Amino acid sequence: MSQSITIPSPPSTSIPRAQPREDAALIRDAQRGSRCAFDVLVRRYDRAILGLALRLTGSEQDAQDIYQDAFLKAYKNIAKFRSESSFYTWMHRIVTNLCVDRLRSKHSRRETSPVTTNGEGKESDLFDQLADSHSRSDPERQVLRHELRRHIAIALKRLTARERVVFQLRHFEGLKLRTVGEMLNTSEETAKNTLFRATHKLRSYLARVDESLAERPRARRT
Questions:
Q1: Are 149 and 127 in contact (CB under 8 A)?
Q2: How confident is the model at residue 13 (pLDDT cuts 50, 70, 90)?
Q3: 81, 147: one domain
Q4: Is there a single domain that holds both residue 94 and residue 140?
Q5: pTM value?
Q6: Which of 31, 38, 165, 176 is the most buried (most CB within 10 A)?
Q7: Are residues 211 and 145 part of one domain?
Q8: Sign of the C-alpha dihedral, residues 210, 212, 216, 217?
């Protein structure tokens, strides 16, 4: 099988649901050397893969690089794929480990808030979910919310690469710890301990931030 493959640009359509039987047939064809079959798999899951990389790294450029690397790695290793897991689960594992490696390799990162993509491909700040119904009409709440988002982004960056990825896979992706452990080639217990450390660090940091933000309204009243 040739190792040359063209990864198409992310599509503007929504993510299709997994189709196990069709995927299995495409995988068999790809393992026999069909580039067209692999291209269909790419088009079926490329949005989900790019979105995952974007959420885990918080960087559009890093996500694009990992998106390319993940599918190239999958193409080169498709012959090793076994049907114990779905194609998407296999890709998820590849992306997760590439993200861990990328985060570890970057000694300094600019502050950017994690982003998510909706079904239409539109990007939004992950911490927009913290908004309440009054924030847009209350300038003071807007300022406090902006600072909280900034501090949460800072807090995430204080975690180790593995702690950050485990935390995001568990809380942002909604994966079970057993699945997280499998994706990181470790045990469920190790993933659980990593999540505990990450959560403790975040709570400790954000508790101090919360106290600081809570003091501001009282200070203005005096």
A1: yes
A2: very low
A3: no
A4: no
A5: 0.64
A6: 165
A7: yes
A8: positive
